[in-house]
User: Which sequence fits this backbone?
């Protein structure tokens, strides 16, 4: 579940009264969209929340917002889909869409989750250079946010979400390998219970990937304001040695935070290499992708592909027919219904579900 963002396409702030809300659709502000929001408010689907300085108007809702991408067999993004070309099912039940639009400029909240264990020593400089290039090319300092989280056995919040890209560059430059221990200034992300019969915090120099993904999702990206695309870019060899949480819990916490994981599997072939299966499963179960670059050029290409995906998506929205707020997991499926497009066997990628948490 999430927040719906409304603003007039002319760029002016929309007054915080229900009859003045307009649906954010490309190219126009119409009385039809105004009436839609009024109906939703009166029906109890949405309720007004105080204005956030980084968002024009926010409405807290029981509306499910779902970005998705479609690719053809040549791995090219398909940008010509129409609402009638797709069908959305939640737990097998068809849903009625009230928004279907191509999204190219949704604000981003990106957390770089960087493995700084000893196995990354040979590759970390290239990883940092590629991450900086990604930030330079993609991040818009007037609206997007970036966090930097190095991890070994523990994850350290070196830079919380910020729009200050110069500060991000400085923090990224300081990130270094933990030999033998991580010496950064960031605070460790906590929140996994320890005590009798429970696993103790991991030792320095170990690798706890699933813990780091779970904590970054729950403690960092959930704080991103407004309806942003939340994503973790995970740089690691995928070889987890000391996580206290299982991979499934990492996926669940990412889904609860509406966070997509893009995994870049990179490691030292002289050591244990890369666990491709674990990283691919983590990424795909959150609606993301996994990349396995062999050299610096491929690493930059992976970041470029993530950029294209983040900026080339569709956004659909619907109010679930299941009104229970029982915390249960709801599975979402997007089907291509256009017969001609079905023959193309398009690959549709999206967040596979959400938890219906109480409002």
Assistant:
């Amino acid at each position: 579940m999430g927040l719906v963002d409304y603003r007039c396409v002319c760029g002016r702030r929309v007054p915080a009264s229900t009859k003045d809300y307009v649906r954010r659709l490309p190219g126009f502000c119409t009385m039809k969209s105004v009436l839609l929001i009024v109906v939703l408010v009166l029906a109890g689907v949405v309720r007004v929340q105080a204005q956030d300085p980084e968002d024009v108007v926010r409405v807290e809702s029981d509306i499910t917002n779902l970005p998705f991408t479609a690719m053809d067999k040549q791995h090219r993004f398909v940008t010509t889909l129409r609402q009638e070309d797709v069908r959305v099912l939640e737990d097998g039940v068809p849903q009625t869409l009230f928004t279907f639009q191509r999204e190219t400029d949704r604000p981003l909240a990106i957390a770089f989750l960087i493995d700084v264990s000893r196995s990354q020593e040979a590759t970390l400089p290239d990883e940092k250079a590629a991450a900086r290039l990604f930030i330079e090319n993609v991040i818009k300092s007037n609206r997007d946010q970036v966090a930097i989280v190095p991890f070994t056995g523990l994850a350290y919040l070196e830079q919380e979400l910020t729009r200050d890209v110069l500060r991000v560059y400085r923090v990224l430059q300081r990130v270094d390998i933990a030999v033998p221990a991580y010496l950064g200034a960031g605070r460790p992300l906590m929140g996994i219970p320890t005590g009798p019969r429970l696993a103790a915090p991991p030792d320095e120099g170990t690798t706890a990937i699933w813990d780091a993904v779970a904590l970054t999702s729950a403690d960092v990206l959930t704080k991103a304001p407004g309806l942003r695309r939340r994503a973790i870019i995970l740089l690691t060899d995928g070889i987890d040695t000391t996580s206290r949480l299982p991979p499934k819990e990492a996926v669940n916490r990412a889904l609860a935070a509406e966070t997509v994981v893009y995994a870049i599997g990179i490691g030292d072939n002289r050591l244990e290499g890369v666990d491709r299966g674990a990283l691919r499963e983590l990424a795909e179960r959150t609606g993301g992708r996994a990349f396995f670059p062999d050299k610096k050029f491929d690493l930059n290409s992976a970041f470029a592909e993530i950029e294209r995906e983040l900026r080339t998506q569709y956004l659909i929205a619907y109010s679930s027919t299941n009104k229970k707020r029982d915390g249960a997991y709801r599975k979402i499926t997007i089907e291509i219904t256009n017969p001609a497009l079905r023959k193309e066997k398009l690959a549709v990628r999206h967040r596979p579900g959400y938890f219906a948490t109480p409002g």
